[in-house]
Structure to design on (176 residues):
C-alpha cells in the first residue's frame, strides 16, 4: 500500500494532466504528396536534347511546301488537312524566335496540346522574308522537329489564308 506522502507526491505530479480528447494517436506521419520526379526528368531531358541537337543538312527539306505523314495515315486524311477541313484548335507563332527558343516553345506547346486533347493545330514558322538571304530559318527546323515527335501524325503547309508556306497544319495523335 502507498503511503500518504507518496499519494500526495503522485497527485502533485499529475495536477496539470488533462484527459485526451481522442483515443486514436497517429503513429506514422502521413506521407508527403507524390512528386513526379522521373516524369520531370524525362521532360527536361527531351527539352535539352531538342535544344542541343540540330538536324544535319541532309535531314532538312528545301521545298516550298511541307508534307509529312506517318505510316497508316490515309491520303484522304492528308487531303482534308491540306484543305483546312479540320478545325484548328490551337496555334503557335514562332516568328522572331531563335531556333533554340523556337524548339523550347514548340515542345511546350505540343505537350500542352496533348494534355488538353487537342487534335489539330497550326504552327506559324514564317517564310524567311526577314532572314539573311531571304531564306527560311525555322521552316526546315520545325519540319524536322515535328517529324521527330511521336504525337505528330501528319503535317502539311497551310492554306494561303492561314499563312501558306509560312505555316503548317499539324494533326496530333489522340491520347489513349
Amino acid at each position: 500500500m502507498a503511503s500518504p506522502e507518496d499519494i500526495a507526491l503522485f497527485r502533485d505530479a499529475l495536477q496539470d494532466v488533462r484527459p485526451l480528447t481522442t483515443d486514436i494517436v497517429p503513429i506514422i506521419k502521413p506521407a508527403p504528396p507524390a512528386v513526379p520526379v522521373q516524369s520531370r526528368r524525362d521532360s527536361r531531358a527531351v527539352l535539352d536534347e531538342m535544344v542541343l541537337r540540330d538536324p544535319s543538312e541532309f535531314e532538312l527539306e528545301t521545298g516550298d511546301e511541307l508534307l509529312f505523314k506517318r505510316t497508316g495515315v490515309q491520303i484522304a486524311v492528308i487531303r482534308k488537312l491540306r484543305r483546312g477541313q479540320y478545325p484548328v484548335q490551337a496555334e503557335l507563332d514562332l516568328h522572331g524566335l531563335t531556333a533554340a527558343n523556337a524548339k523550347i516553345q514548340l515542345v511546350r506547346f505540343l505537350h500542352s496540346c496533348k494534355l488538353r486533347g487537342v487534335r489539330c493545330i497550326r504552327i506559324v514558322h514564317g517564310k524567311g522574308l526577314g532572314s539573311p538571304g531571304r531564306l527560311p530559318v525555322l521552316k526546315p527546323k520545325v519540319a524536322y522537329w515535328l517529324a521527330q515527335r511521336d504525337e505528330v501524325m501528319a503535317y502539311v503547309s497551310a492554306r494561303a489564308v492561314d499563312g501558306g508556306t509560312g505555316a503548317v497544319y499539324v494533326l496530333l495523335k489522340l491520347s489513349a
